[in-house]
Specification:
- By secondary structure, this protein is an alpha/beta fold.
- It has helices at residues 37-43, 110-113, 117-130, 147-158, 171-174, 193-200, 218-224, 246-251, 266-279, 281-285, 302-311; strands at residues 2-7, 10-15, 25-34, 61-69, 81-85, 93-97, 101-103, 138-142, 163-167, 184-186, 206-211, 225-233, 255-258, 293-298, 317-321.
- It has two domains: 2-115 and 291-321, Medium-chain alcohol dehydrogenases, catalytic domain (Quinone Oxidoreductase, Chain A, domain 1, Alpha-Beta Complex); 120-258, Alpha-Beta Complex (Quinone Oxidoreductase, Chain A, domain 1).
- Helix 3 (117-130) packs across helix 4 (147-158) and helix 6 packs parallel to helix 7.
- The model has no long low-confidence stretch (mean pLDDT 94).
- It holds the Pfam family ADH_zinc_N.
- Residues 7-320 form the Enoyl reductase (ER) domain.
- GO terms for molecular function: oxidoreductase activity.
Length: 322
């Protein structure tokens, strides 16, 4: 089968053996894939968790149909339309654990379905499970114009947030954040963004920050979070190291929570997918929670899809179809 593999000459489409499902695995015939920021690093040979390096089939998000079941796989049958996340997504066939997938709603095509699994699982876990957002509270999403950021704002609104603030350093994208739930859009490179957040919250700061930037905004986040508020760190787009004001962190008694899928067990991931199904799935089926597709590429042009992502001018998801 054809797959997008990182090799000695970088990433390229090549022939690899079709995988066989074992245990609780499901073999998926892939119809569409969503690109994610972490994929860029892997196309350059960087590891993402335990995956990466020479010989790696790239990709982590897909939509397709069940082609075959492992002997212990449950909950789906051959022919079911599904979407999910996991390694080796950029291929004609991929393997998925039976607990790491969603059924694709009947009103959703494969391209649309491929945009959702990573965003839904990541941001329900960050906003609801770890962020503990309650109706009537206030939230700031750092890096809000990314696909997962757009989903985070929508989930916050769905859960009853009274004020949603989104940040983006790009003026065009910042101007569109209100379409996806932002009541206030700020530029995190503007030295005055913290003052804007404080003004919008009566001087208190927000109850919750979901931070995909970290690095340069770490101390500003502390100032923008209310006393006994919460910061959930889900990314490091601004870098992995920075100055941190420990005294301010202690003085404001902020809960600082780190989350990532890279170190989670399959049991933990199954639980996250179950929580999405139990809590917000009706909003997915009704299309209340959805992501815009910026551009669709054929699998043969997957290199161009990555060039488009690296240009960093898109809003919404980039999709590759097989």
């Amino acid at each position: 089968m054809k797959a997008y593999v990182y090799g000695a000459n970088g990433p390229e489409i090549t022939e690899v053996a079709k995988p066989q499902p074992k245990g609780t695995q499901v073999l998926v015939k892939v119809h569409a894939c969503g690109l994610n920021r972490a994929d860029i690093g892997m196309t350059k040979g960087h590891a993402h968790g335990s995956a990466g390096g020479a010989g790696t089939v790239l990709g982590m998000e897909w939509a397709g149909e069940v082609a075959e079941l492992g002997p212990e796989a449950k909950g789906v049958k051959v022919g079911d339309r599904i979407m999910g996340s996991g390694g080796a997504a950029f291929a004609e066939y991929t393997l998925a654990d039976h607990g790491r997938l969603f059924r694709s709603p009947s009103n959703m095509n494969f391209d649309e379905a491929a945009t959702l699994p990573v965003a839904l699982a990541t941001m329900h876990n960050a906003v609801v499970t770890n962020g503990a957002l309650q109706a009537g509270q206030t939230v700031l999403i750092q890096g809000a114009s990314s696909g997962v950021g757009l989903m985070a704002m929508q989930i916050a609104k769905l859960k009853g947030a009274k004020l949603v603030v989104g940040s983006s350093t790009d003026a065009m994208r910042r101007g569109r954040l209100k379409e996806f739930g932002a009541d206030l859009a700020v530029d995190s490179k503007d030295p005055g963004w913290v003052d804007q957040v404080l003004q919008a919250t009566g001087g208190e700061g927000v109850d919750l920050i979901v931070d995909q930037v970290s690095g340069p905004v770490a101390n500003q986040n502390l100032k923008a979070t209310k006393v006994k508020g919460r910061i959930v760190n889900v990314g490091r787009l601004g870098g992995t190291h920075a100055d941190f004001n420990f005294d301010l962190h202690a003085a404001r008694r902020i809960q600082y929570i780190g989350v990532t899928f890279r170190t989670r067990s399959i049991e933990e991931i199954r639980e996250i997918f179950d929580e999405v199904k139990k809590d917000i799935w009706p909003a997915v089926e009704s299309r209340k929670l959805q992501l815009p597709i910026d551009k669709v590429y054929k699998f043969a042009d997957i290199g161009k899809a990555f060039e488009h992502m690296e240009a960093n001018k898109h809003l919404g998801k980039i999709v590759v179809t097989l």
